[in-house]
Amino acid sequence: MSGRRERTKAANRAAILAAAQEVFASEGYGAASVRDIVRRTDLASGTFYNYFPDKDAIFVALIADVGEEARRRVRAARRSAHTAEDFVEGAYRAFFEFIVEDPERFAFVRRNLDTMTSRFGETVLPAGTEELAEDLRAAIEAGSLPPVDVDYCAGAMVAVGLELGARLAERDPPDVDGATSFASGLFLGALERHALSVR
Q1: Per-residue pLDDT averaged across 120-141, rounded?
Q2: pLDDT digits (tens, 9 = 90+) for 135-165
Q3: Distance, CA of 185 to chain centre
Q4: Confidence class of residue 72 from pLDDT cuts 50, 70 and 90?
Q5: What's the rounded Cα separation, in Å, for the pair 55 and 187?
Q6: What CATH number should be reported for the domain whose range is 1-53?
Q7: Residues 59-197, CATH architecture
Q8: What 3-state class would DSSP assign to 144?
Q9: What distance lies between CA 34 and its chain's CA centroid?
Q10: How many CB atoms lie within 10 A of CB 23?
């Protein structure tokens, strides 16, 4: 019985999250309501509150799911890098491709990116910035990146990734190559100039 109950709970939560992603993608965070989300499921209206206390909580859960997978892919790209070019370009490409590869996730991110960063950024962004800082330190120690202020560099790289992610999402079709090239050129040039200045 407990196994069936757990499967039912997992299925209900997944159904609510899927419905919420659709609603936030079509209506945007501001216009969406819990009632809109529940209407897109086969669940009773009160069931929602067994899983999430309010709209903010389910929005944060969706961002966390998206962010966790994005961080996993970006970190894998950075950790497989052997050069500064691989580190920077590979990570940006992994992030931008992740944004656009799934049409439903892309619609959710595209419609709500400003809300994600302005209203909920403090909830979800620090983990990615801290992971990037760890990887920057490891790359500097390995000699594949020149010494830099890791705190400044990680903050700047995340900010540029989010801003360009929003810009490429507005283009039709989304310009993954252009965003990757721009972000990579920006940071590789800065890293090269910084390396020359400290010699």
Answers
A1: 86
A2: 999 999 999 898 999 999 999 999 899 889 8
A3: 21
A4: very high
A5: 37
A6: 1.10.10.60
A7: Orthogonal Bundle (1.10)
A8: coil
A9: 23
A10: 24
